[in-house]
Amino acid sequence: MTLSMKIEVQKLDTPYKVVFNRIMRYYGAGCFPQDTEDAGNRWKVPIGVHYPSSIVDQKTNTERIFTFHFNNIGEFLLEKSTLMVKSRPSLKNITQSIREKRKELSVKVEKDFIKIIGDPKLKIRFGAMKYAHLGIQPIYRTLTRLLETPEKYPSRSWVEQIGYEDLVNLIVDIGYAEYSEDGRLTPKNELKELFTEMKADLARTAETIIGLVLAKHYDYLYKTKRIIHFVPYVRTSTTYYAEAIQYGSLIHVTENSLLERMRKYYRITSFPSPKARFGYPTIIRELLNAEILCSKDNYITGRDEIFDELIHIRDKLPMSEPSYPA
Fold first, then answer.
1. What does the alpha-carbon distance between residue 152 and residue 154 come to, in Å, rounded to a whole number?
2. Which residue, 170, 319, 297, is CA-closest to 242?
3. Dmax over Cα atoms in the chain, in whole Å?
4. Of 76, 74, 81, 56, whose CA–CA distance to 66 is shortest?
């Protein structure tokens, strides 16, 4: 008996096939070639990745598994005449690109989160975040003077003397104060009405103004003025709500797991020591007191009002997931 065997050899005769073959060799099945692009005397083939992820509600021990689909995490360049690979991304570069894509989610949640926490209807207790106040004391001091008697309205020279004119003028920028003809900073009707609405509670009025300033000028305070005191609060909150958005509902997490997820999202190698005056446990406690996060059955969870303002982001995420029973 004669046995015969037929071997079919795949012909790598297109840029797509060449890149697909190299992907299987170097990176594994998670990556994929995208559409070939003409780059003069070469072919350019961008590549994407299917990246698995999961979120766990630690109270119910319920896990949801997702797959993110990220395009343009790297590219191959091939000679047109020979289809020889001239350049390809390293595994390190691909890993970094995936991290950057994941970070984009946090950035999106962070921007929307900052916008909504300034909404007076949420009644965020900014006064509870003691460490955050250190960089914006001039704003608090100015608001105190504006909400007291007219004799204490600060002059422009006083504002300049304290060295924080650019911070104080943020109150002017959001429309709650203005300079009079004699050079004094005076409250506008909007600030007076807010003060009345808050039943003449100076602390609550100041908290509302701080929220409005942060909502509009967070990037300026953080990136330009290098006032970083609010950053740990924003990053901790953003990490929680980013996880909840992916999950599709509010979740329950431990304090330690939230810290680890934040380090992963923001690539933070260290955080203030728990023994420090404003260490991570203090940040968590103050976020709870500010009613940005909540505590339930010894787990950290979120506020429905904040989550409802952010959940629309989920529809824009490049991810898919299995069907779960209702």
1. 6
2. 319
3. 112
4. 56
Residue 56 has pLDDT above 50, yes or no: yes
**In the predicted model, is pLDDT for residue 277 greater than 50?**
no
Highest-pLDDT range among 102-116, 153-167, 247-261, 312-326: 247-261
Question: Is the Cβ–Cβ distance between 98 and 51 less than 8 Å?
Answer: yes
Query: Angle between the 165-173 and 202-219 helix axes, to the nearest 10 degrees?
Result: 100
Alpha helices in the chain (DSSP H): 15-26, 91-117, 137-146, 156-161, 165-173, 189-197, 202-219, 231-247, 255-266, 280-289, 304-310
DSSP code for 223:
I
**What pTM, to 2 d.p., does this model score?**
0.83
Whole-number Å distance between alpha carbons of 326 and 323: 9
* pLDDT at position 151: 75
Q: What is the pLDDT of residue 18?
A: 92
- Segment 209-228 mean pLDDT: 90
Long-range contacts of residues 189-192, Cβ cutoff 8 Å, at least 24 apart: 191/146, 191/147
Contact (CB, 8 A) for 36 and 11: no
Residue 29, both tokens? 């099945």
Q: Which three-class secondary structure state does DSSP give residue 184?
A: strand
Q: Can you give the residue ranges of every domain in the chain?
A: 15-101, 116-320
Q: Which residues of 199-211 are buried (b: 16+ CB within 10 A; e: fewer)?
A: eeeeebbbbbbbb
Residue 276 is predicted with a pLDDT of 46
For 135-165, give the DSSP string.
G-HHHHHHHHHHTS-GGGPPBHHHHHHTT-H
